[in-house]
Amino acid sequence: MATGNGLASLGVEGATSAAHALSLPADAYGNDPQLEVMWAMKAYQHAEIYFNLISSVDPTFLKLTKIDDKIYSTFREQFADLNIQLVDPDRFKSAEAREKWRPFCNEFDGLIEDFNYGTLLRLDCQRDYTEENTIFATRIQFFAVEIARNREGYNSFVYNSKKQSSEAGLS
């Protein structure tokens, strides 16, 4: 992402202000392009860290929150038929989908910090974060899908692929 120079140009004081600004609710702002870039950078960094994590550690053993069990059971009760291996963006973005997701997301208000912050979600769990394989989702949607992918073994593909390529490099 070519936005690193923008953040570096803020300096220490500007970066501190930006960090504070990112901690405020989204409805406190208009459409400030610089703020949108900072949100995108934060989401990208989160995605990069998460992908490195599932590439390095067997995801079936990962615990993403203190309440993974509640998130997973509630998610699978309310979205039993949602294909998490290959996510259809319309199942997140359509008006009908938003109405279905809203009560689910709001159930975690106060339980998950920043539950409604923007996060990047991979559409195809066997692929990395790319422009065509990524959508914006709320943080609780990300947790719900990724906890399910981890528990149901779908993210193991990423871990096993990385492990096999590392082992092949040692041979």
TrEMBL record:
InterPro entries per UniProt: PBDC1-like_dom_sf, PBDC1_metazoa/fungi, Polysacc_synth_dom
GO cellular component: cytoplasm
Membrane-crossing segments per the record: none
Domain Polysaccharide biosynthesis per the UniProt entry, residue ranges: 35-159
Protein name (Swiss-Prot/TrEMBL): Polysaccharide biosynthesis domain-containing protein
Organism encoding this protein: Aldrovandia affinis
